[in-house]
């Protein structure tokens, strides 16, 4: 371990800008530690827990695609049996691995997440009450070379003579948020490996886990297999002299029938091959995958190691949450770090996660967008069920694209009554958000084939939906969008939310641009698609009319302010701090229908400001006026909010403020500032939107990047300590390298 360390906050430090380390573990950080030190590869996410932790310590290995509804209400990802489970007994007494080391060893304890390759290292020195001393090391990674495997190396060095028992195998008694997903788990200890297999309750998926290991260093005196309830373990006893070292190389392999018809064969093949190769070789094969990822996404900041480490921590999580191996899976709002938010995509995916991928790893962005095509059926079904035409995408979207967001989401903590939130049926901006991301992907990559194959169909169906949702106000000769929920979720049932209306217009115009191009340049595609979607000239004319006549709240000529929705400015004007004092219970929900914010101008998260991130037609004065107005009224009750404020603050030249919001956003997980529970619902885990947004804060905020009709421009406004920023972008299929300084941005020769 390097001697240099730079403090990140009271818990974490970095040694190189490529790692996040901690020196002590405190039980109050049980949830956030597991999330922050998550190792993953987009296929699975294994929480950063100690090897002897169990369900009460939130151990989890969440596997993409394993959606299941075990309690009849919540669909979520399944948690695989824990095949890294390992515990120790020293001289007959259990020795918890997360014990903080006693005084003489204090400074030697550490955990380190290496961001360069996702390797999580843990080291501890333990001394029992009787004076037996030992050093324990464990490291593991989720392989990018074979997505089904997690290799772990576990080492013990005796510092005094001691009797050691190591029990290692599979712990099938796992943490589940909403019902047990694999109630019929079958555990079996075979000669050289242990297996766990079961079926998920409602989705009927088979989930298979194998465990295998090898021991070197000292021969065990005794070995036995102990199967008890939901665990199957090998128990080894060693008699150790001071200086004796034991090394256990362990392997967990995971596969579900979502991945193919024979998950057992796949998981077993992975096990056999990996055992053959051995730990070092597996690590060696894994590393180049990360090298390639970092070569695309890294942003190097010279002059500020603190910002560097924060940024890379967020980029690391923005990658491991993304199912880059598939075009049928979404990026979950908590990625693969837990079951919260149902392993499902929200608008976060398009507006927060995709920009980084589109600009740096466009193939990956294409796959995630293809997921939206594959789930178009769900969006069509949702629209139909609610009486609309076209595609109304699910607010919470899993495997099929059918709406997963329950109508009753929160509970009123004062009365215990359920709250009917309308995230699912009024938050319509999700559909135009998808159009925005698709069009951005096309603008940056020039990949028209995506539009022809998938994008046009999605966008036409969204246009159709928007038209069917709109209300034509005869007296004003304009289209309005009424009964909405905009990005600010505290205000439900509002009309003409500026963000939604502007994006709706953008979507309609995009649909018309595509229609025109298809008609002119690819008439047969135009004909086929029109036929498939049963689109007529009347549809196109309707979209044209609505695009021309949709009401867009304009900046007020005297104040420059855009009203968030009709009547917003008539609401009580107060501050989040004031509302805090009105709470009867600290866990009260602030929003609909009776929350303290509902009749006030206090917002949960950026709304009008969010529009400015996506739409650069507004003048700097408008940005300035609205930032000054809306910023003090925002509670930042969502982890999505700080990044938007950072971007707009940077664009309007408030660099210190922007830097504070950058830290706020990038530290949301490391400082565990966000609630792990809201209205009785567990919402802990990694905030993947904030992770993706870290990239945007730097690029759109501090570097002032804009891309207009194929023209890339920058207006750098760097934080004080940042001397230079180097990064890569992939435009039109070509990767370009850039260097930004305080005075400008230049393209580098590669
Ligand atoms: O999509 C967000 C929403 O904007 C605020 N609540 C949490 C959701 C998931 O991150």
Helix content: 25-40%
Main sheet, how many strands, which sense, barrel? 11 strands, antiparallel
Overall 3D geometry? globular
Q: Indicate the radius of gyration in whole angstroms.
A: 27 Å
Protein structure class:
alpha+beta
Bound molecules: 5-hydroxymethyl-3,4-dihydroxypiperidine
Number of helices: 19
Could you tell me how far the N terminus lies from the C terminus, measured between alpha carbons in angstroms? 33 Å
Overall mean confidence score, pLDDT: 96
Number of strands: 32
Low-confidence stretches: none
Strand order of the largest sheet: 1-2-3-10-11-12-13-20-17-16-15
Proportion of strand residues = 15-25%
Describe the protein.
Helices cover 33% and strands 23% of the residues. The protein has 19 helices and 32 strands. The strands form 8 sheets. An 11-stranded antiparallel beta sheet has the order 1-2-3-10-11-12-13-20-17-16-15, with helices on both faces. Strands 9-8-14-19-18 form a 5-stranded antiparallel beta sheet, with no helix packed on it. 5-hydroxymethyl-3,4-dihydroxypiperidine (IFM) binds at residues 333, 341, 346-348, 487, 489, 638, 640, 689.
């Amino acid at each position: 371990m390097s001697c240099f360390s730079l403090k990140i906050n009271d818990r974490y430090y970095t040694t190189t800008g490529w790692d996040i380390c901690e020196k002590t573990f405190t039980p109050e950080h049980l949830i956030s530690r597991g999330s922050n030190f998550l190792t993953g590869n987009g296929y699975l996410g294994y929480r950063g827990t100690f090897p002897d932790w169990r369900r009460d310590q939130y151990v989890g290995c969440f596997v993409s695609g394993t959606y299941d509804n075990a309690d009849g209400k919540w669909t979520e990802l399944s948690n695989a049996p824990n095949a890294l489970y390992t515990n120790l007994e020293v001289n007959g007494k259990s020795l918890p691995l997360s014990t903080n080391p006693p005084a003489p060893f204090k400074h030697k304890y550490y955990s380190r997440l290496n961001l360069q390759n996702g390797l999580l290292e843990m080291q501890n020195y333990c001394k029992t009450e009787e004076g037996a001393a030992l050093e324990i090391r464990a490291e593991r990674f989720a392989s990018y070379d074979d997505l089904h495997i997690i290799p772990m190396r576990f080492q013990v060095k005796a510092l005094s003579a001691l009797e050691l028992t190591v029990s290692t195998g599979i712990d099938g008694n796992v943490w589940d948020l909403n019902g047990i997903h694999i109630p019929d788990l079958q555990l079996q200890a075979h000669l050289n490996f242990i297996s766990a297999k079961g079926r998920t309750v409602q989705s009927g998926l088979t989930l298979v886990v194998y465990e295998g290991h090898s021991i070197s260093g000292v021969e065990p005196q005794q070995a036995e297999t102990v199967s008890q309830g939901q665990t199957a373990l090998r128990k080894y006893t060693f008699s150790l002299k001071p200086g004796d070292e034991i090394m256990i190389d362990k392997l967990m392999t995971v596969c579900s029938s979502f991945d193919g018809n024979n998950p057992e064969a796949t998981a077993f093949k992975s096990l056999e091959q990996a055992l053959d190769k051995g730990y070092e070789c597996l690590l060696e094969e894994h590393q180049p995958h990360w090298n390639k990822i970092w070569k695309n996404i890294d942003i190097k900041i010279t002059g500020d190691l603190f910002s560097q480490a924060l940024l890379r921590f967020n980029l690391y999580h923005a990658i491991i949450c993304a199912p880059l191996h598939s075009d049928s899976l979404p990026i979950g709002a908590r990625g693969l770090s837990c079951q919260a938010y149902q392993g499902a995509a929200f608008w976060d995916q398009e507006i927060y996660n995709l920009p980084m991928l589109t600009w740096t790893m466009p193939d990956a962005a294409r796959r995630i967008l293809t997921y939206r095509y594959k789930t178009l059926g769900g969006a069509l079904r949702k629209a139909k069920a609610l009486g609309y035409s076209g595609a109304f995408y699910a607010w919470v979207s899993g495997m099929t694209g059918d709406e997963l967001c329950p109508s009753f989401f929160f509970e009123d903590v004062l009365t215990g009554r359920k709250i009917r939130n309308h995230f699912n049926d009024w938050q319509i901006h999700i559909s135009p958000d998808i159009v925005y991301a698709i069009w951005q992907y096309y603008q940056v990559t020039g990949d028209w084939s995506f539009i022809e194959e998938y994008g046009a169909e999605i966008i036409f169906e969204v246009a159709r939906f928007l038209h069917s949702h709109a209300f034509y106000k005869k007296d004003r000769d304009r289209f309005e969008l009424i009964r909405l929920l905009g990005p600010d979720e505290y205000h439900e049932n509002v009309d003409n939310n500026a963000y939604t209306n502007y994006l709706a217009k953008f979507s309609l115009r995009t649909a018309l641009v595509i229609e025109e191009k298809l008609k002119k340049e690819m008439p047969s595609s135009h004909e086929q698609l029109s036929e498939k979607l049963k689109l007529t000239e009347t549809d196109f004319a309707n979209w044209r009319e609505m695009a021309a006549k949709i009401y867009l709240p304009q900046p007020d000529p005297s104040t420059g302010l855009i009203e968030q929705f009709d009547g917003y400015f008539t609401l009580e004007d107060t501050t989040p701090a004031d509302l805090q004092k009105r709470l009867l219970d600290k866990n009260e929900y602030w929003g609909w229908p009776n929350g303290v914010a509902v009749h006030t101008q206090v917002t949960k998260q950026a709304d009008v400001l969010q529009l400015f991130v996506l739409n650069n037609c507004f003048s700097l004065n408008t940005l300035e006026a609205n930032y000054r107005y809306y910023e003090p009224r925002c509670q930042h009750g969502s982890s999505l909010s700080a990044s938007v404020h950072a971007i707009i603050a940077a664009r309007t030249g408030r660099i210190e403020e922007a830097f504070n919001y950058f830290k706020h956003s990038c530290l949301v997980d490391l400082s565990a500032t966000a609630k792990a529970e809201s209205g009785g619902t567990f919402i802990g885990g990694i905030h993947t939107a904030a992770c993706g947004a870290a990239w945007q804060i730097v690029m759109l905020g501090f570097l002032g990047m804009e891309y207009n009709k194929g023209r890339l421009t920058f207006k750098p406004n760097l934080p004080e300590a940042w001397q230079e920023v180097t990064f890569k972008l992939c435009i039109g299929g070509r990767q370009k390298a850039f260097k930004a300084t305080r005075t400008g941005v230049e393209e580098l020769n590669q």
